[in-house]
Amino acid sequence: STMEETDREAVATAVQRVAGMLQRPDQLDKVEQYRRREARKKASVEARLKVQSWKNLSVCCQAMLRTLNLTGNEELRKNHLHVTCREVVGNLLEYLKIIFMKLFQNNSYSCSPAFCLVLLLSFPEIVRETHDLIERGELLQAHRKLMDLEFSRDNLMYEQYRMDSKNTHDMNLIHTYFGDTQKLSEELAKQLWMVVQRSLVTVRRDPTLLVSVVRIIDREEKIDRRMLDRKKQTGFIPPGRPKKWKEKMFNILERTVSTRIEGTQADTRESDKMWLVRHLEIIRKYVVDDLLVAKTLLDQCFPPHYDIFNRLLNMYHQALATRMQELAAEDLEANEIVSLLTWVLNTYTSAEMMGNSELSPEVDVNSLDALISQNVVDQLLSKYMSTLTSNIIGWLRKALETDKKDWIKETEPEADQDGYYQTTLPAIVFQMFEQNLQVAAQINEDLKTKVLVLCLQQMNSFLTRYKDEAQLYKEDHLKNRQYPQCYVQYMIAVINNCQTFKESIISLKRKYLKSDMEDTLSISHANMDATLDIIAKEGCSSLLDEVFMDLEPHLNELMTKKWLMGSNAVGTICVTVEDYFNDFAKIKKPYKKTMTLEAHRRVVVEYIRAIMLKRISFKNAEERKEGAERMIKEAEQFRFLFKKLAAGSGEDTEGLCDIIEAIAEVIKLTDPSLLYLEVSTLVSKYPDIRDDHIAALLTVRGDASRDMKQTIIETLDQGPSQPNPNYVPIFKEITVPTLTVPKLLK
Q: How far does the signal peptide extend, from start to end residue (predicted)?
């Protein structure tokens, strides 16, 4: 029969094995050892076969029982046969448990036989219950059941390992039977990580849930340690160990923090100019809120050795550093560079963020590392400065172009609160400088100084362009004096702007420059002041040119027959000057004072020039007297006019009109023998009078012979001079026409 054949095969195999073991005489001593080993193997195989067959029977019984219990038909459930079947199967299961218990006792497994038996027989049911608990969120209970399952699996595997560590087939049998345990562990972990991801929200809504999760992770850590210790001693470690759930938890927290920081950028530059400011503000708010929650609530849900607050603080710092480096690498605009650097260098450690009093003493701003390296900061600042330089050049050019358009308007410029004409140029320029300096000051003192130096350097170049444009404005006007209509008023505004620029530069330096840096800018400041003085001086000069172009026909009437007969040229000159000076009243003080002095001087120069042109030569003493008195009267008119114009300036300008009177005295003199004395007095007062001036003066007088002129001039050269110390030479500006030989006709 088949059984007999099998027995024969088994005996043959055994004989072969024994023959293989006993090939040398010395092996006979080990016969007892071989016998014991074979007996152990046989017992192990028999036990496994029994376990497997009983287990299969157990699973069948459980399935039958479940089917019988779940029958939907109530009548059938009460049926006598149905009830009997349920009882039989139930009893069979109980019987199986007793058999298993005996089996384990006989095979001396180290784990509690009863415990392992119950688990083995109830395994599918426990798996299902554990799965349901996980789904319902009862994580602690689910974990307890999972630990029980893993405990029995691990102990069975350990026993198998102890008995026969090389028997991988049996190990795999146990592993396969408990296969669902690994899936349950993964399912539970998935739930834990969801809670960990939302820990900052969970801790406010349901702190108990978070505490449960942390307890589970902590238990798993302890089991990990126990299993690793056993591995050191025995070499055995169960599948899936170490789980390293604590490490995974921190990795998930780290990823969550990074995602939270990155996810705060809601806008792009295209959709919102202020995208970066918004992004940084949202980050600031989130970080502060999160860390406050971590400190006040989260810290209590974790064991102290987890050091959860400091770990989280470090994660936020790292995530911020990464994000700031990403932003720094983008192609940022000047204002965006400032926003980023202000946030990184100042906001981050300020009371609005990490320096928040509620976060201390745990957060010490002095021990926080920099979010971006000094090298990156320097690169950003360098880029900012070069962008700002080109921006300022562009802004200044645009501001000047806009201002020039105003110069040709047909309406007068606006006046300031004191009634002085001005344009908006200085205000626009310095408002722009102020804005950039305030921005730079947010970052640091050093940048503020650099920006101030840059502003003043660009201001220097700008003023040179301003000077050139004012000159072109004047030249264009001279081509057609009817255009622009408000030339005088806008030239006054340009002059006044010079004073405003001067004051604004001083104010800017006072506000933004440390006193110890003053020297570094003194040269450029002096240059700017000099340029502004030139613009103002040339402006004033061009305005006086306007006056004297209008006075020209009247000046040409002086010292002519018509004048002697009683023309009103000087009256018209005075009215015209006064009329212009009504407009010049809108010039600011330092320049207006200069203007009045210069106008006075030029009137007197032009008057003396008219005398030196020799347009008239008096015929007799009567004419000389009449002419001289007229000159004295007109000098008085000028004196009155300029006293009125210089009212309040405290300037003594009478000395200029005295020159006209002194010349009149020479002309008026009736006794020719005293002429030398009169002329020498004139020369001692005004030592820049040249010989040709005296000759012209004697010609106008009309009664001195050539020899007499020669004698007077030669004698004068030896005389002493006693000029007034305040006297500013006036005659050197006046040329005397000489008789020229007409060119021969070609």
A: none
